[in-house]
Please model this.
Amino acid sequence: QVQLVESGGGLAQTGGSLRLSCAPSGGSFRSNFVAWFRQAPGKEREFVAGIRWSNGDILYADSVKGRFTISRDKSQNTMSLQMNSLRPEDTARYYCAGATMEYYPVTTYSRRQQYNYWGQGTQVTVSS
Model:
């Protein structure tokens, strides 16, 4: 079992930036695809962004395109989400997730049932 650990959440103002990071504790991601999901109170957990570990294929939710950037560092075994131009509606708990299966097209990874590993989440709050 892979344990994923998120860091970097916090409080930001509208228009501000935060950077989230995710790393597996004690080993590798053991995942073909790693992603960020988020869940606001009373809402479903939704896909935010993801990246294929092998070749860097990237998928973004429409709501974050042009504002968020996902990346992975193979040498450090970490994955990050740079969040710019934050909005109050970005307020949520952000979860790192890993999927072990290889799927094509990359849009398949927008579904949370494709993921095998989840972190505990980190809170992001954007004030207006």
